[in-house]
Specification:
heterodimer; A: alpha+beta; 2 domains; two-stranded antiparallel sheet; globular; B: 4-stranded antiparallel sheet; 10 helices
């Protein structure tokens, strides 16, 4: 078994595909990248102690080892009685090429059509989630809620013998030495991953864009498979409300409950602050306008491209913008100027935008949920949260300025009966460092924000109002909108480098210059470096 | 192969007599009639056979109006706006809210009942109309409140006009059975622009003159039917014809006592597969009200918060056929 250790130089999710040795398919293994050097069979007692989710307790620990994705569901059925919540199934379909009709030109396109199938029901979301390309394939990823220890347990079959491997629990996403490794390379905080989490859910079957059978080639049995024919009619909308958001909230609540379960001291509060100040992952959002429908009418643009309205407005109650839109002709001109096209990188190219126009990254719901939880439990105050998020507020994602404030996070925090001195300690640390930093530094900007004191809502509201006005003016000008387009492209390029980018059709391609851009508070776009 | 003897009432609501049932069927047949000659891929199931193996194609969408959603920039803003005026609730589902003395939400009632059916009841049996109004909306309703000076049933009468005074049936201009049939029939026409098939929802709706491309419902109905029509099939709407409440999503909701929030969803009209009217209300003995329940961490303060979670459905039926329609240019 130890000859596999050579593979472990790769700590990405790809390591699971590099295992060439046939593991015993009649045993459950564990391979938690960062902790384990190689897959190893779990002893029955060890597995029973470690795993309390329904996939383990009803299937794997009973010596049942499904060979395909469909067999996973069959095994759940075999282990449960009629009426058991685990008999309740939902299926969803998505794919980066799902909205591109199959024709002679696109017949060979890698569309990444795949399914999410869930079992279980209830306001906290389903207990078992499985992602698979096909019911008949072995390749599947299973997440199952472990009510005993909290968090989702992650499983996947690996190697030529299709042996099931426990690859970690949500908590491994947050702990050294496993964080960022294996499945937690993309599930950065241990959550279910639904990149396109809000309307219009580009790439998913949804009320805004159906995925029809014609997305599959003629004769493809998936056209007739119940996962497709009996999929949730509302698709992504149901997944968002019934699966993704409840699941993320469930894990976030369990995570904070565990953090505060002892004497209230929280080690590594920086791990929490990283989800507030940095961009460990993103969701994708777009205009509601179809790319092909752009004409003379205005194209609405997602406000979270311009401001973290989820954090600043929904959570902290600051003023929301009135809405951002650009004239159709201006948008179309930018598409033309930058030669925007869909491309799979393997020969397929089609001029124009993605199915919905202007797909861009936005702050991830899972990170916004952590912000809300941190405020709710008393770890951070609304004032500190506002001052942090208002530092470099025109850049809701990928702000190196805001992320640099992580250097000042205290090493330990204590929360007692919903109260903590953490916010003042962190503010003091930044304020103490500010005088020694250059003019315009993030620390100095934070100090200005902190200076607002209890008037922060009023003062930040004025700052935002000025910014919204400046952006609104920019959107009426072709040259300035071109700048926004390049800014969007620079953010997309960052996402293309993230593990969640799995298909070139995730975004449209363009000839926009690949430089890192940042938005300024006056609505102008600055060049800050090479991507 | 079967031919429907007649169109059923929405949700198979009972009719007092055979004559009443025939009269409703005649209303629906009249809605279908204008399309049958010119649109060969749309058919009347009381005239033509529908095979047993006809493909069932449910189309579902959220009751919350997409036009309000798309132009709003905060959650509270959109919920409050959608709660303010029935004319904004344009997804074939409308709602009305009730509050207690503290202003807390106590009940939200949703309906997908088409006005044509209530007009039919008014014409057929005004006493029954009054009794249903009194049962569903308010015991104080008087017959004179429901008819205008010329004796015609008044859709937007005082008991069915607002978002907080009760709800009987749909009143928004686009929320009619006639509009749904019109859309379904005309969506069987395939379209092209510059030699390229038009298949995307918004573009299809704009191209075919099929309504507002930014609603939830119409673009999706149009695209689903158009996609089936491209296969050469013939299409109709499934009996009992109507718009139905297809589900209520409780993910992320929490009650003060940990009870399942789904318990408080009650179907008031229709059968389990064809729900026409439902309410969300906590029984008094629980000791709390709807406004004490949270969704995604926020207390329920608006009907729109629940409308986000209400699924509306229409079901198309397709029978295999061998039409080879030419794609038509966009409407001018």
């Amino acid at each position: 078994m130890h000859d596999l250790a050579t593979d472990i130089a790769d700590t990405s999710c790809g390591v699971f595909f590099s295992i060439s040795e046939a593991l015993d398919p009649e045993k459950l293994h564990r391979f938690i990248v960062g902790e384990d050097e190689a897959p190893q069979a779990m002893e029955a007692r060890e597995a029973a102690e470690a795993l309390g989710d329904p996939f383990a307790t009803l299937v794997l620990l009973r010596g049942v080892f499904p060979r395909t994705a469909a067999e996973v569901l069959d095994a759940i059925d075999a282990a449960t009685a009629d009426g058991d919540p685990l008999r309740q199934q939902m299926s969803f379909v998505l794919g980066e090429g799902s909205q591109i009709p199959v024709d002679a030109e696109t017949a060979g396109l890698r569309r990444s059509m795949r399914f999410l199938v869930t079992r279980g029901t209830g306001p906290q979301g389903p207990d078992l989630l499985m992602s698979a390309f096909s019911p008949d394939q072995a390749e599947a990823e299973v997440m199952a809620w472990d009510a005993r220890s909290g968090g989702f347990n992650y499983y996947r079959p690996v190697g030529p013998s299709v042996a099931w491997v426990f690859v970690g629990n949500s908590r491994h996403a947050l702990l050294e030495p496993t964080e960022g490794k294996g499945p937690f390379e993309s599930h950065t905080s241990g959550n279910f991953l639904m990149k396109e989490l809000r309307a219009p859910w580009v790439h998913w079957h949804s009320p805004d864009a159906n995925v029809f059978p014609t997305a599959f080639p003629d004769g493809d049995p998936l056209r007739e498979h119940p996962w497709f024919t009996a999929k949730e009619p509302q698709g992504a909308l149901t997944c968002e409300l019934q699966v993704a958001k409840p699941g993320i909230s469930r894990w976030t609540a369990a995570r904070f409950e565990a953090l505060l379960a002892g004497d209230g001291s929280i080690e590594r509060p920086g791990r929490i602050l990283a989800q507030i100040l940095d961009t460990p992952t993103v969701n994708l959002i777009s205009s509601h306008a179809e790319g092909t429908a752009v004409g003379s009418e205005p194209v609405d643009l997602p406000q979270t491209f311009f401001v973290d309205s989820e954090g600043l407005c929904e959570t902290l109650g600051l003023q929301a913008p009135e809405g951002f839109a650009v004239g159709g002709p201006i948008y179309a001109s930018s598409l033309n100027s930058f030669n925007v096209r869909l491309s799979d990188g393997e020969g397929f190219e089609r001029p124009g935008d993605t199915h919905f126009a202007f797909v861009v990254p936005e702050p991830a719901f899972e990170d916004s949920e952590v912000l809300r939880a941190a405020i709710r439990v008393g770890l951070i105050t609304e004032r500190l949260a506002a001052c942090l998020l208002m530092t470099d507020f025109p850049n809701p994602v990928f702000s190196t300025r805001r992320a640099s404030l992580l250097a000042h996070v205290p090493g330990v925090a204590t929360v007692t009966q919903g109260q903590s001195g953490f916010s003042q300690e962190m503010a003091d640390a930044i304020l103490g460092a500010a005088p020694g930093t250059p003019d315009g530094s993030p620390e100095r900007e934070f100090a200005e924000r902190w200076e607002a004191g209890e008037e922060w809502r009023v003062q930040f509201g004025l700052l935002l109002a000025d910014y919204y006005r400046a952006v609104g003016e920019g959107l009426r000008n072709q040259e300035r909108f071109d700048d926004y387009f390049v800014l969007a492209e620079s953010r997309r390029e960052r996402v293309r480098g993230m593990p969640i980018s799995e298909n070139p059709l995730l975004f449209a391609r363009s000839d926009a210059p690949l430089t890192t851009r940042a938005m300024a508070a006056d609505g102008s776009v600055l060049t800050t470096g090479e991507v | 192969m079967t031919t429907l003897a007649r169109f059923s009432t929405p949700g198979r609501l009972p009719e007092p007599t055979e004559e009443s049932a025939d009269a409703w069927s005649a209303v629906v047949a009249k809605i279908f009639a204008p399309y049958l000659e010119d649109l060969p891929q749309f058919f009347d199931p009381t005239v033509e056979d529908t095979p047993e193996d006809a493909t069932v194609a449910p189309v579902a969408w959220s009751a919350f109006p997409a036009t309000v959603r798309n132009r709003s920039t905060s959650e509270e803003q959109r919920w409050a706006e959608a709660d303010s005026d029935r004319s904004l609730q344009d997804e074939y589902c409308e709602w009305s809210v009730a509050r207690n003395a503290e202003g807390k939400l106590t009940r939200v009632t949703f309906t997908t009942e088409v006005p044509e059916f209530w007009e039919h009841v008014a014409e057929d049996d005004s006493d029954k109309l009054l009794s249903v109004y009194r049962e569903l909306v308010n015991p104080e309703v008087a017959l004179d409140d429901l008819f205008d000076d010329s004796g015609r049933y008044f859709r937007t009468n005082r008991w069915n006009a607002t978002t907080d005074g009760g709800v009987a049936h749909l009143i928004q201009d686009s929320n009619t059975l006639g509009a749904a049939v019109d859309l379904s029939a005309r969506a069987t026409v395939l379209r092209e622009r510059d030699g390229r098939p038009v298949v995307n929802q918004q573009e299809l709706v704009s191209c075919g003159g099929l309504g507002n491309p930014f609603r939830n419902s119409d673009p999706q109905i149009a695209a689903a039917i158009n996609n089936v029509a491209a296969s050469g099939a013939e299409i109709t709407l499934q009996d009992p014809l109507g718009l139905y409440i297809d589900g209520f999503l409780t993910g992320g909701m929490a009650t003060p006592d940990g009870e399942d929030p789904a318990l408080y969803w009650t179907v008031e009209r229709g059968d389990p597969d064809h729900v026409l009217r439902a309410r969300y209300e906590v029984p008094e003995e629980r000791g709390y009200v709807v406004g004490d329940i949270t969704a995604a961490g926020r207390p329920l303060r608006f009907g729109g918060q629940l409308a986000d979670r209400v699924e509306v459905r229409v079901t198309a039926l397709a029978k295999a056929a061998s039409h080879r329609p030419d794609r038509q240019p966009c409407e001018p």
